[in-house]
TrEMBL record:
SUPFAM superfamilies, per database record: UDP-Glycosyltransferase/glycogen phosphorylase
Gene source species: Apilactobacillus apinorum
PANTHER family: GLYCOSYLTRANSFERASE, TEICHURONIC ACID BIOSYNTHESIS GLYCOSYLTRANSFERASE TUAH-RELATED
Protein name (Swiss-Prot/TrEMBL): Accessory Sec system glycosyltransferase Asp1
Keywords tagged on the record: Glycosyltransferase, Transferase
Length: 502
C-alpha cells in the first residue's frame, strides 16, 4: 500500500520562518518525485490559499483543519466582490467608499458596518465589522480568500471575543467556539464540532480538535512528520496507527557550542520531546549528520536520521557580479546576531568605500527594527545599509542576483536554509563556524570562509577579501555553483529514499 506523508505545522503565514519554508520545499520535492504528501496546518487562516499561491504550492498540497471540517479544501472558484455581493442589500443600504481598502455601509445616514477589502485583491470582501448603536464593534464576518463567509465573531459586551461560528461555504455552522474569562484574559474554552458524520463532538482546546482531525485523516499507511516542537504533545498522544517522526530544524541546545555535550541545556521547547514523549516517536530527523551523531551519543536508545531540510535547483542565468553588495537573508531576530554584523561595516568601508549591506527578512518586532536603526545611526552607516524587510520570488531574486557575498553571524543553526539557497545563486559565503549548518555548506577557503564565532575583525577581513580580490571571488563563485549540487533536489530526495527504505 502506498504511504501518505503528512507534514504537520501550525500555519503557512504571511511572513514565514525556515520551518515553514522547509515544509513547503519538502512538499514540492515529494510532488516532483511522485510521493503522496501534504502540509497539514492547524490554525484558522482565511488567507491560507492566497499565501500558498505566492510560493508555488498547489491547493491539494495543503490540508487545513478548518478547511477539512468546512468541506472546503479546494482552490478558489468564486470572487465575492463587494459591489455585486448579496451580503449588502443595495435597496436598503448605501456603500460609501473610504479608499481602495475599505468602505462603510450606511442606512438612513447611520453607519452600520465597515467592510475591509481582502488584501491583494480588487474589491473582494475580506471582513465586515458591524456596529452597535454606540459605534462599538458588535460582530464581525470573516471571509475566506476563496470567496465565502468562513466565520462570524461576536464580541463580548465587556470587550474581547465572546463566541465564534465557523461555516461551510453553504452557510451551515460546522464549528462553534466559546470564549470565557481566564484570569484577566478572554480565551477559547470549548470547541464544538457540529453534525460531523451525524454526531456532535466537544473539545476543550484547539489542539484537542486538531488531534481528532489528525486521527480522522491518518491510518497505518500514514507517516506523520511533525515540524513544530510546539505540537509535539499533540502528535505524541495521537490515537492512530500512523508512524510518527519529529523533525528538528535547529540546534537542540541553548548554547550551540555545547551541542555535543550530553549535559548541555536543551531549548525549553524540546524538553517535552526528550523527557516525556521520546518513546512515542519512531524517530527524530535532523538536518545534518553531525547533529545526528551528537544526539545518538546523548540518547543512545533513540533512532535519529539526518536529511537536509531544504533543496534548491541552481538558478538560471547566474553571472559573476561586480557590485560590492553583501546580503543577509533570513529572520531578522535577536538570536541571529544581526547587530554584530552591522559592526563590521565601518571596517569594511575603509577598504571598500562603496560596500552596501542588505538585510532581507521579516523582523522580530518593530522595537527590534528600531534598535537596529539606532545602531546604524550610531555607526554612521545609514547610506551603507538597507533594511529591506521580507522579500520573495522576483524581489528576492533581484537582490541576490546583485549580491557579491552572502553573510551570516548567527551563533547556532540547524542547517541554514539561507546559506543553502545562497549556493543556488553562486554566492560566496562568509559565516561563523558554529553548530551545525555553516560547516556543512561552506568549505573554508573554497566556496567561502568560516570564521571563529564573534571574531568580527576576521569576519570583516574575509568579506573584504572577497569584495576586493577578483580571483578569490571568481574561484569561490564557481565553487559555490559546484557545492550547490550537494543540496539539489535529486541529491536531497536520495536521502529521503534511504529513509523510506530503512
Amino acid at each position: 500500500m502506498t504511504k501518505q506523508y503528512l507534514f504537520v505545522n501550525e500555519n503557512i503565514f504571511t511572513f514565514n520562518s525556515g520551518t515553514e519554508f522547509s515544509a513547503m520545499n519538502r512538499a514540492k520535492l515529494f510532488k516532483r518525485n511522485g510521493v503522496d504528501a501534504k502540509i497539514v496546518t492547524r490554525n484558522f487562516n482565511p488567507s491560507l490559499h492566497q499565501e500558498i499561491e505566492k510560493y508555488g504550492i498547489d491547493d491539494d498540497q495543503v490540508l487545513n483543519m478548518y478547511d477539512y471540517f468546512q468541506n472546503q479544501t479546494g482552490k478558489k472558484t468564486h470572487h465575492e466582490y463587494l459591489r455585486y455581493s448579496s451580503v449588502v442589500d443595495k435597496h436598503d443600504y448605501k456603500i460609501n467608499g473610504v479608499d481602495n481598502n475599505s468602505s462603510y455601509i450606511e442606512r438612513l445616514g447611520q453607519r452600520i458596518a465597515k467592510v475591509s477589502i481582502f488584501p491583494l485583491t480588487i474589491g473582494e470582501i475580506g471582513n465586515i465589522e458591524y456596529y452597535d448603536n454606540f459605534g462599538n464593534i458588535a460582530s464581525q464576518d470573516v471571509f475566506d480568500y476563496r470567496g465565502f463567509k468562513s466565520k462570524e465573531i461576536y464580541m463580548h459586551p465587556a470587550g474581547g471575543i465572546g463566541h465564534e461560528l465557523v461555516f461551510d461555504k453553504n452557510g451551515k455552522v460546522v464549528i462553534e467556539i466559546t470564549h470565557m474569562n481566564v484570569g484577566d484574559r478572554v480565551l477559547p474554552s470549548m470547541y464544538k464540532l457540529l453534525d460531523y458524520k451525524g454526531k456532535t463532538y466537544r473539545f476543550n482546546t484547539e489542539d484537542d480538535l486538531f488531534a481528532f482531525f489528525l486521527e480522522e485523516i491518518s491510518d497505518e499507511n500514514t507517516v506523520i512528520i511533525n515540524d513544530r516542537p510546539s505540537l509535539t504533545p499533540v502528535i505524541a498522544n495521537l490515537n492512530t496507527d500512523a508512524t510518527k517522526y519529529q523533525y528538528l530544524h535547529n540546534v537542540h541546545t541553548e548554547n550551540a557550542s555545547e551541542a555535543g555535550n550530553n549535559s548541555a541545556v536543551l531549548f525549553n521547547n524540546l524538553y517535552p520531546l526528550f523527557d516525556e514523549f521520546f518513546g512515542k516517536f519512531a524517530g527524530i530527523i535532523v538536518p545534518t549528520d553531525k547533529q545526528r551523531k551528537d544526539l545518538e551519543k546523548r540518547y543512545p536508545m533513540g533512532k535519529f536520521y539526518s536529511i537536509f531540510d531544504s533543496a534548491f535547483d541552481l538558478k538560471a542565468n547566474i553571472k559573476p557580479v561586480n557590485t560590492h553588495n553583501i546580503t543577509y537573508l533570513g529572520r531578522v531576530f535577536r538570536d541571529k546576531n544581526i547587530s554584530e554584523l552591522l559592526t563590521i561595516i565601518p571596517a569594511v568601508q575603509q577598504q571598500v568605500p562603496d560596500v552596501h549591506l542588505n538585510i532581507m527578512g521579516y523582523f522580530e518586532s518593530a522595537d527590534y527594527k528600531n534598535e537596529l536603526e539606532a545602531i546604524i545611526k550610531q555607526l554612521k552607516i545609514e547610506n551603507a545599509v538597507s533594511l529591506l524587510d521580507y522579500k520573495i520570488e522576483a524581489e528576492k531574486d533581484n537582490i541576490l542576483y546583485n549580491t557579491r557575498v552572502l553573510v551570516q553571524t548567527s551563533l547556532g543553526e540547524g542547517l541554514s536554509m539561507s546559506l543553502v539557497e545562497g549556493l543556488s545563486y553562486g554566492l560566496p559565503e562568509v559565516a561563523y563556524d558554529v553548530n551545525y549548518g555553516p560547516n556543512e555548506i561552506i568549505e573554508n577557503n573554497v566556496n567561502g570562509f568560516l570564521v571563529e564565532p564573534k571574531n568580527i575583525t576576521s569576519l570583516a577581513n574575509r568579506v573584504i577579501e572577497i569584495l576586493n580580490n577578483q580571483d578569490t571571488y571568481d574561484r569561490m563563485h564557481d565553487q559555490a555553483i559546484t557545492k550547490s549540487i550537494k543540496f539539489n533536489p535529486d541529491n536531497v530526495f536520495a536521502q529521503w529514499e534511504t529513509f523510506f527504505n530503512k
